[in-house]
């Protein structure tokens, strides 16, 4: 006959605890003597024990049975109640009553699922990682199978539901977290539960190592012409999908993926060799928002991976990947040794392969490390508004696996859709990559560039402030590229090994809207040059101001320029340039700074350690490529540093070339509506202006966004202002007053 409740409670009273456990609980929980009226041969029943201990004693019991500390819940300070029960707001008395009412007790989840029980009965599972309180529920058959972590199928129908499950632990779904056993299935169930719920909180166990002990062999790619028949192994990345509101408490735990495998060559395309073999991406998010991740390590184990020498294309193996996601807050994340990127941001294909031109938006990363990865510390494909504070993007390509091009610390390289000629594939201006800031970040020892911020037609408003760029120990062609529209590099320290382009050839990716401000930086170089590459580009604006340059050329066998700046709208002002050379290292004259056809060179100071008969010099150019406006250029090393190789220099080594007179004009031209990609010219009269003079047109209010402004002397006494609509639709340029300054060229 089935037992009634009184019989069950009587059996529960007979469940006893040993004297050793009693002593531990008595010592750690309460000091008073436990009641003796319920002792059975030196043992004490569970009901009496729970009733006598109170909340503190229950916490100690939880530590013994569940393996978690009493006052600390998974690495952060919390109450005793939370340590035992979670966050559900219930009174201490109510929880004691629940514990006392848990008339059933089993060793593990398997035993729970085999347990016969009535509806609404509470059972306690003693299993260390998956244990807790469960209540029996009667549900329809389609819900009774359970999710493997919060709910489990019950014997005879219905299900067991975990109590106080306002957060999720991977252990509940089968993860072990010992760095040895495979946690792939348990983590997959955990993520699926969050996806179904649409969000939640995941608590990782302090210092656990969740090991995804498998790797992917991908299915056949249509570009593969070498393998008529091919199929993968079915292993896929685990994706968070359409989750809106998620917190992952890392508690200094680690996720690691299998790295001990060999990447075989399978086919070639576009000059690269491809392999179907790849490591898993640890955390993948598709169309998710309001996600916080903190205190977590993501280990790609790339040092254990080998490859055929013909495998040159990067795999899709990242630490963190976000696609069409918004409002991520990442703190104290360490993503390292991944075959591709530490963080891959933004892509136009979601987890289901659906194409939609949506960027990532509004991400924050603080105190994160993206180091020893194969391709980039971070690749920013499509993002609007992101900030990285005190993050480390270093040692890309330095793991035993090697690197994939470009091997940079950070690569801001928008996808081709942003400049597609097909209208349907073009990206709206509001969704183009923009407003990205790096504050106090480090870019050091990468095999490729420290950072790439190019493609001014597709990215803009990029800021690097108080950062360190160190290319020593690497051999890149360029230390970094800063040529996106409205790039600001301020207060940074740079150690060059390779050139530092502050603009870039438009046809090679520089774009037609390059605006770079390089200000208050300290630059150290033994083999490198700071340069503006394409001086013929009329859309290139580079301002180099208040920087300290130190070029140590004492170890160079082949001497050359330190600074090469060319461009009619570029300015070089208020800088200090020191060139260190050995005694007698130069014979004759060596041009070290070429400041040719720039708009302005002013208030710069030049020094050198050179001694002997040789001299070094600046070149400001001769007609027609002469810099028109030069003032207070100070040469502090006597005759060893000449003012201008092409002209004589004064006895005090201060070379000044100032236009004898400047011309001015004023007008209020109306430009009206301008077609997409089109231009409208209007003229202002300036008496005395002649073709070849420099003109600068300045509006009296801030120009409209999306337009470029260019002025030139189009005829005698005539200045033409050209407004170009850089947007994809017609737009009106509002009327305003214009002030024009003309600088005559002295031939």
Task: Walk me through the structure.
By secondary structure, this protein is mostly beta strands. It has seven helices and 62 strands. The strands form twelve sheets. It has a 24-stranded mixed sheet that branches. A hairpin with a 2-residue loop joins β17 and β18. The longest helix has 21 residues. The N terminus is likely disordered. InterPro entries: Pectin_lyas_fold (IPR012334), Pectin_lyase_fold/virulence (IPR011050), TAT_signal (IPR006311).
Short description:
By secondary structure, this protein is mainly beta. It has a 24-stranded mixed sheet that branches. The radius of gyration is 34 Å and the shape is elongated.
Write the topology of this structure.
Elements (H helix, E strand, L loop, with lengths): L4 H10 L1 E2 L1 H10 L10 E2 L2 E3 H21 L5 E2 L2 E2 L2 H6 L6 H10 L2 E3 L2 H5 L8 E4 L6 E6 L13 E3 L5 E4 L21 H14 L2 E4 L5 E4 L3 E2 L21 E3 L2 E14 L4 E2 L3 E3 L2 E3 L2 E2 L4 E4 L2 E11 L6 E2 L12 E4 L2 E11 L4 E5 L14 E7 L2 E3 L4 E5 L2 E7 L18 E5 L20 E7 L2 E3 L6 E3 L5 E7 L2 E3 L9 E3 L2 E6 L2 E5 L2 E4 L11 E5 L2 E6 L2 E3 L8 E5 L2 E5 L10 E4 L4 E3 L2 E5 L8 E8 L3 E3 L2 E4 L6 E5 L10 E6 L5 E2 L11 E4 L5 E5 L4 E3 L4 E7 L8 E6 L7 E9 L2 E8 L5 E3 L4 E6 L4
Parallel strand pairs: 6-7, 11-15, 12-15, 14-20, 15-21, 16-22, 20-23, 21-24, 23-25, 24-26, 24-27, 25-28, 26-29, 28-30, 29-31, 30-33, 31-34, 32-35, 33-36, 34-37, 35-38, 37-40, 38-41, 39-42, 40-43, 41-44, 42-45, 43-46, 44-47, 45-48, 46-49, 47-50, 48-51, 49-52, 50-52, 51-53
Antiparallel strand pairs: 1-3, 2-3, 4-5, 7-8, 8-10, 9-10, 13-19, 17-18, 52-54, 55-62, 56-61, 57-60, 58-62, 59-60
Helix pairs in contact: 2-3, 3-5
